Amino acid sequence: MRILAIETSCDETAVALLECTGGLDDARFAVLGNSLDSQAAKHAEFGGVYPTLAKREHQQNLAPLIAGVLRQAGMAKEPGSAAPAEALANIRDDAFKKSVETFLAAHAKPDIDLIAVTHGPGLEPALWTGINFAEALAKTWGLPLFGIDHMEGHLIGALLSSVPKGADGVDPYVLKPFAFPLLALLISGGHTELILMKEWFSYERIGATKDDALGEAFDKVARLLSLPYPGGPHIAASAARSRARGGTAITFPRPMVNDATCDFSFSGLKTAVLYKLREMEEISEEDKEAIAQAFEDAARDTVVSKTLRAIDLTHPHALVLGGGVSANAEIRHAIETRVQERHPDVSVLLPEWELTGDNGIMIGAAAYLRYLSGKESDMELQALGSLVLE
Ligand code: KG4
Ligand code: ZN
Questions:
Q1: Ligand 1: residues whose CB is within 6 Å?
Q2: Is 377 exposed, middle or buried (0-12, 13-18, 19+ CB in 10 A)?
Q3: Most buried of the four, 175, 224, 265, 293, by CB within 10 Å?
Q4: Residue 276 Cα, ligand 1 centroid: separation in angstroms?
Q5: Tens digit of pLDDT for each residue in 333-388?
Q6: pLDDT digits 0-9 by tens, 313-325
Q7: Using CA atoms, how far apart are residues 69 and 64, in angstroms rounded to an integer?
Q8: Is this structure's pTM higher than 0.90?
């Protein structure tokens, strides 16, 4: 089964074309095409994602990205055909409608079987662009359409491991070996949650943030330290320089670690950083690095502590880490070692580096596994900004 997947929930426009084979136990995903356009630099001056700009960027990026992915896959065929009115009926923006129409007029139906698109959670104006384009393709080409939860995408993406190129010369991913129940710590720019996956696509939320997401806290603290957006990688690099110098005596509170829930709170930690900065008179580069380290230490210890608590509560066979913040080396290392120490019987599944941030591959893979699980196409998707896994 060949799947074209589209992701536009935040500030990355991502498209992938996967050839999926095998069943739920031995699924294999060959990446025939994969492309991504990050708008992060454009949002940097706003210090965070600016929804109207994200929407406009997705609207401009989608047609060229999809065309590029079809070319990579050797599936770009001219000419296309006129889109039926019904396929474009939900597109309100004229320029965007024109770009979808022009794309369809220039591209004949490729040899694919399904279209997958992120339908939430995320910024609704951004989600709508992906949904509108996906719906136009599915309706014009007569293909089923699957709406995928972005956080499910991160979870499934973290279950993929790349294996050496197959005889067909394309990069395949396979599912890592694991058994249910599986506990997922999902840490991204918009979400921070502990989710129990009891079997394929059956979820229970064990804990979640009460305020800021972890990635958001990294981004806000980066801003306080005058580091560029997105802040996560910059905080990590600063913190590493502080550790290389022997570390710091500065400590910040580990929020909510002593309460009995698996919930998180990161806004107090950000405020603690703010107060610390106000208290210091002159702030050198080394001071900033020390603060970055103290923040990262506190964030790391908090997620480790809550994850261990959730494991005690739910007794999973595997712990999987996903979301953009799972690129953080300190957090990856601590989760792996601390979970292994306390629960040697729980396998720890860390995402491949290139699948930590938003991408189309995770959305396509989730769609294939949903299809295998008997889930059905939905041709009338809505953008669901606050969609939750359940
Ligand atoms: O999953 P993602 O790419 O987009 C959302 O779904 O939100 O996550 C983006 C978040 C940003 O907040 C970014 O600062 C954070 O992931 N991030 C990191 C690192 N790399 C990305 N946070 C900490 N350390 C990193 N190395
Ligand atoms: Zn994400």
A1: 10, 188-190, 215, 218-219, 230-233, 236, 323-325, 327-328, 357-358
A2: middle
A3: 293
A4: 24
A5: 999 999 999 999 999 999 999 999 999 999 999 999 999 999 999 999 999 999 99
A6: 999 999 999 999 9
A7: 9
A8: yes
